[in-house]
Amino acid sequence: MKRTGFLLTGMLIVTGCLAYAWRTLPRQESDLYVQENLGARQEESEPAEQVIQREKEDGYAYGKLSGEKQELYLEIRDALVHFEEDVKLSSCDKEEISHVFQCVLNDHPEIFYVEGYTYTEYTLGDILKKITFTGSYHYNQEEIAEKQKLIDSYVNQCLNGMPENADEYTKVKYIYEYLIHHTEYDAAVEDNQNICSVFIEGRSVCQGYAKATQYLLSKADVFATLVLGRVVGGEGHAWNLVKIDGQYYYVDTTWGDASYQAVGGASGYPGEKIPTINYDYLCVPTEQMNLTHTLDNVVDLPECHSMAANYYVREGFYFTEWNEEQAGRIFQEEYEKGSAYVTLKCASDAVYSQMQEALIERQEVFQYLDCPEGVVSYSDNEKQYSMSFWL
């Protein structure tokens, strides 16, 4: 018996932030199938099929799968890349197929044209003999080729501006900043679940940001993979895991594209001085990410412990204890650079409290700021132990 089912890539939609959902509804809840009995025209055993040698790969999700699931992964990947139809799969477990399908999409942001897949079940009596797989696509191959040209043009322009001989941290920081400067958050834009929204439209949501970050970093020879989960309030979200100098870190480009809301200052503070980049989510460890994010990923992820490549550590804005001399040097250097604002990051709640007491309660911040009118505009983030001041 032959039965055909359809699976579209699910979307979690909360406050405009979308992500693929790999946990699908039980198959019996869907009536989108056709079943064909093979018993009348086929023996129990089928002719031996040709063994296909498939190219292995180094995708993160792929590497976390068992050997049998890796084979299924390669079958699905090749079917999507080559637009193959009715590919016989090595698994007859529909939940496993759904899971591995999502693993393929997590590892391959360049497969931007896939919207789901259909499968066909072949049974002999009550026995499921095999399942075949066919991808479902947003576009035809000609349209895909045209979009790829536009993607390539964006990527080339971006990477051509990267500093020469950049180390891995510099590459990650550059791409984080580039995407934020060239992308607007927009839940209504077409293709917001894939890289087209970012590279072609310049507008996207979290999954578009995360897949674009992954795509660009891979082109820059930096490891990155997609991460799925939730944020405070339960909203679905997507971000990235990267590796710098052998250590893992989390990067959330979407949350990096945010303006602070100045408090304590004039209501008409110049709009041009409002920051466009939040560095609290550039190369952070698990402990810090868990303050606002919850993992719900398709495969296990490593614990990230290092702070060596954290933005604030690398840029000298990190305080392991309150230090007036360090604070004075930072403010002076940022004034000399012509910066519009500066953010100070603390290692713990205790250090954050000391900084807040010194700069705000005792008003020592006026030692460092040029405030002829005696007005300070600042923002504090208790969850991230950081304070930002407009210069």
Uncertain residue ranges: 9-36, 39-44, 259-269
Give me the CATH architecture of the largest domain, please.
Roll
CATH topology label of the largest domain? C8orf32 fold
- Based on Cα principal axes, name the global outline: elongated
Class based on secondary structure composition and strand pairing? alpha+beta
Classify the helix fraction into a percent range. Answer: 25-40%
Overall tally of structural domains: 3
**Helix and strand pattern:** EEEHHEHEEHHEHEHEEEHEHEHEHEHEE
End-to-end CA span: 72 Å
Number of DSSP strand runs = 17
Widest β-sheet, arrangement of strands: 12-11-10-9-13
Strand content: 15-25%
Q: How does the major sheet shape up?
A: 5 strands, antiparallel
Overall mean pLDDT stands at: 85
What is the CATH C level class of the largest domain, in words? Alpha Beta
Number of helices: 12
Rg from alpha-carbon coordinates: 25 Å
